[in-house]
Amino acid sequence: MDIADSVIDLIGNTPVVKLPRTTGHLDCVIAAKLEMANPGGSSKDRPALAMIDAAEKSGELLPGGTIVEPTSGNTGVGLAIVAAQRGYNCVFVMTDKVAPEKVDLLRAYGAEVVVCPVAVAPEDPDSYYSTAERLLQEIPGAYRPNQYHNDVNPLSHELTTGPEIWEQTEGRITHFVAGAGTGGTLTGVGRYLKKMNPAIQVVAADPEGSVYSGGSGRPYLVEGVGEDFWPDTYEPDVIDRVIPVSDADSFAMARHVSQNEGILIGGSGGTAMAGALRLGEELGPDDLVVVLLPDTGRGYLSKVFNDGWMAEFGFLTTTDGRTVGDVVDDKSPVAPTLLYVNPEVTIREAVQLMRKHGVSQLPVAKNEMPLAAAEVMGSVNELHLMEVTFHDLTMLDHPVEDHMSPSMPTIGTGQPIELAVDQLDSASALLVLDGGRPTTVLTRTDVLNYLSPDEEI
């Protein structure tokens, strides 16, 4: 009988399929490796099983032990599946960028989940890397697979995913495209394919802002790919090219493939597919591209596939009428796009900036432009600062983070003006998001000027 002994035996041997409604206009063939067909719904099942096997063999993970790992969700699911079969506990550390259904999913497998802020440096004690390290020291019998630095991660793909792709294409593959997260998939598959045919090109599709495509690791919203550091599991010599892809293109492609091909994929799959299409424009009929789609879109229903979330972050227009973007476009072209202050700036400097540009409030945000929405910490306004400094002028030299107000409400560029008017009824200003990034501050005066262009306000 064709009956597997356990769910673990179902990992791997995922299918490859053409995407005619997405790639039919190209001269080359682009086929997708559907890794969501793994039991845990992603390509991460492969290294999860391999890393646990290796840890058991080495004695690093003992019976009844606890698996601790920072993860965006998919590796956690793979580890949780193996743990359920073999009697281990799991504690996973995630950032608050991750969709809430991913947190719920890991908890459904019986894992404990610790959520950390995304807008902090890797070395910060509150980062998900630091938190995982602390838990590793605190929990007796804890083992960390350490997917970013564990050679078994790329090895699992070299031993399984690569051979599968070679056999499924009968060795005709000319290009392999995948997202770069830990780099394990690209490195492992790339090693195998280049061993079989050194002419095969290995291409990384990477979020704009990630270190792989020359950024600093910020800001981007797509989950599971891109990094702010260089993992040991990423082998640059195996990668022939990196194609940067914006959040907007990633999310639009995920929705397109899901709605037109009937294959529900996540944002990182959208990144890979967008990169593959860009590559495909350059190729001919003798080329065969395999793009790896790492997971299902079911972990992104509250974000990528939620029209409200997409509109609020400026990825989607939800009206046929006038939009917030129309008001923004109408603002004075000589004004700076976004005025804001870093948290360490003094109140004195913030007041001087507001005075110079004739504004009454400013966002407070970490880092430099372009910003991510998660990097906005709060705001400062002239009324509150006046109250703070009135009785004690020494407060002028205090950092604004000690006296800031809550963040301004946000609104997307594609949302209707009516929504802005409703929000401005209770807020003096709104922070406008376009493509997931803060771009400007919208005030009541801005809306009035747009609605009455020939009037003196």
Could you list some keywords that capture this structure?
17% strand; 15 strands; CBS-domain; 457 residues; Rossmann fold; alpha/beta; globular; 15 helices; 4-stranded parallel beta sheet; single chain; 6-stranded mixed beta sheet; 35% helix
Outline the fold blueprint.
Blueprint: E1 16-18, H1 20-23, E2 29-34, H2 45-58, E3 66-70, H3 74-86, E4 89-95, H4 100-108, E5 112-116, H5 128-138, E6 142-143, H6 152-168, E7 175-179, H7 184-196, E8 201-207, E9 241-245, H8 247-261, H9 267-280, E10 288-293, H10 307-312, H11 324-330, H12 347-357, E11 361-365, E12 376-381, H13 382-389, E13 410-412, H14 417-424, E14 429-434, E15 437-443, H15 444-451
Parallel strand pairs: 2-10, 3-4, 3-6, 4-5, 7-8, 7-10, 8-9, 13-14
Antiparallel strand pairs: 1-2, 11-12, 14-15
Helix pairs in contact: 2-3, 2-6, 6-7, 8-9, 11-15
Give a short summary of the structure:
It contains 15 helices and 15 strands.
How is this structure best described in words?
This protein is of the alpha/beta class and 457 residues long. The chain has 3 domains: 7-38 and 151-302, 3-Layer(aba) Sandwich (Rossmann fold), CATH 3.40.50; 45-143, 3-Layer(aba) Sandwich (Rossmann fold); 309-451, CBS-domain (Roll). 35% of the residues lie in helices and 17% in strands. The protein is built from 15 helices and 15 strands. The protein has helices at residues 20-23, 45-58, 74-86, 100-108, 128-138, 152-168, 184-196, 247-261, 267-280, 307-312, 324-330, 347-357, 382-389, 417-424, 444-451; strands at 16-18, 29-34, 66-70, 89-95, 112-116, 142-143, 175-179, 201-207, 241-245, 288-293, 361-365, 376-381, 410-412, 429-434, 437-443. Strands 1-2-10-7-8-9 form a 6-stranded mixed beta sheet. Strands 5-4-3-6 form a 4-stranded parallel beta sheet, sandwiched between helices. A 3-stranded mixed beta sheet has the order 13-14-15. α2 crosses α6, α6 packs across α7 (184-196) and α8 (247-261) packs across α9. It starts with 15 loop residues before the first strand and ends in a 6-residue tail after the last helix.
